[in-house]
């Protein structure tokens, strides 16, 4: 397994364990994220948004594609809290100098339950 892929898998483990300190250490300061339900323009902004998420979930990788510093993960994301369901997702990540520099997440939002921000 390549160092780039190791970094991505380590980030996913930290996300699932809600280890925000570890997550932050794996992100470049200028990290950007874009997804259907969230986007951020720095690592610190991303971590603050992630702390607000009440999800408890695990992922199972279906396919991994690597090309140098680029990783594409296709995975099943199984959420157990605040709702239950499994969703197929795809994330494109760029790794630079041992840290994740950017990520873009894709999934079908029509299959995702509507969230009440006051619930949970």
Task: Kindly identify the CATH topology.
Answer: Nuclear Transport Factor 2, Chain: A
What is the terminal separation in angstroms? 38 Å
The total count of helices amounts to 3
**Major beta sheet, strand line-up:** 2-1-6-5-4-3
Helix content percent band: 25-40%
Strand content: over 45%
Order of helices and strands: HHEEHEEEE
Query: Major β-sheet, in short?
Result: 6 strands, mixed
Give the uncertain stretches in residue-range form.
Answer: none
In CATH, what is the class?
Alpha Beta
Number of domains: 1
Based on secondary structure, the structural category is alpha+beta
Number of strands: 6
The whole-angstrom Rg is 14 Å
Estimate the mean pLDDT confidence: 90
Give your account of this protein's structure:
Helix content is 26%, strand content 46%. By secondary structure, the protein is α+β, with helices and mostly antiparallel strands. It has a single domain, classed as Nuclear Transport Factor 2, Chain: A, CATH 3.10.450. The chain has a six-stranded mixed sheet. The chain is globular, with a radius of gyration of 14 Å. The N and C termini lie far apart (38 Å). The mean pLDDT is 90.
């Amino acid at each position: 397994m390549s160092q780039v892929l190791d970094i991505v898998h380590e980030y996913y483990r930290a996300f699932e364990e809600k280890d925000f300190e570890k997550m932050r250490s794996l992100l470049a300061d200028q990290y950007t994220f874009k997804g259907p339900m969230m986007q951020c323009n720095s690592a610190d902004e991303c971590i603050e948004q992630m702390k607000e998420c009440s999800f408890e979930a695990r992922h199972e990788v279906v396919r991994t594609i690597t090309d140098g510093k680029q990783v594409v993960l296709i995975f099943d994301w199984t959420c157990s809290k605040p709702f239950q369901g499994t969703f197929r997702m795809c994330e494109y990540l760029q790794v630079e100098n041992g840290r994740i520099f950017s990520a873009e997440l894709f999934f079908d939002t029509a299959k995702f339950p509507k969230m009440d921000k006051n619930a949970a």
